[in-house]
Amino acid sequence: MKTTMEANVSERVHCENDSIAALLRERFSEQSTLVLDLISSPGSGKTSLIEATVRAVGKDYRIGALTGGVGTERDAERLRALGIPARQILTGGGCHLDARLVNSALSPGGFEGLDLLFIENVGGLICPATHDLGEDLKVALLSVTEGDDKPFKYPGIFSRAALTLITKVDLLPYVSFDLDAVRAELASLNPAGRVIVTSAMTGDGIWQWCQTLSDRLSAKVSVASWVV
Ligand SMILES: Nc1nc2c(ncn2[C@@H]2O[C@H](COP(=O)(O)OP(=O)(O)OP(=O)(O)O)[C@@H](O)[C@H]2O)c(=O)[nH]1
Ligand SMILES: [Mg+2]
Fold first, then answer.
1. Confidence class of residue 133 from pLDDT cuts 50, 70 and 90?
2. Which is deepest, 15, 23, 52, 115, by most CB within 10 Å?
3. How far apart are CA 198 and CA 103, in angstroms?
4. Which atom of ligand 1 lies at the shortest distance from residue 78's CA?
């Protein structure tokens, strides 16, 4: 249980985060950039999903990525190898990204005029769920190797995410994972959320994922043209 002082500090930190996130959201809207905050346990396939997306639609869209991590440049290097701008955000041990870190990472430039900006959060299902980064969508990933009990164990992210990707579906024959039960759990936690089943390895579901991104981007661009 938090003391009153702890609760006040936590509220102030969230307030400051939300003001920076609001400014980021305004900037992303002006540039008609669709921003996705990818959240999952470590190793569920966030970087692989971005790679698969770049391979699928990298010629049609300008894509960039910020990758959160505690100590290495590895994910950003993987993505730069595909020819997209990618910058690692090192949290120095912190378990999630926040709007201030995203703002600082964008400040040196190189990410203007993108269609899609992926923000790969630090691996974890708890801390990353509660911070607004100025994104359009929080996207949760749950790999079939993690166990099918995760939505009810970590309801915060699965009830908030506009989209949940069930990843590594190519491994389904080898693990105990009840896909229908997970779909039902997700539907009860988050009736408005969508679910897509994917494999970055075989390409299953990647077309549907890219189509969803394309639809959301078109909607954002058309709203921006109304506002102008
Ligand atoms: N079989 C299979 N393996 C996958 C798939 N997607 C990712 N992997 C493997 O899973 C491991 C982790 O993938 P990453 O994309 O690095 O996962 P991540 O979520 O970015 O990991 P962190 O950044 O460490 O949290 C790698 O060995 C990938 O090759 C998939 O669809 N099928
Ligand atoms: Mg990664």
1. very high
2. 52
3. 30
4. 16
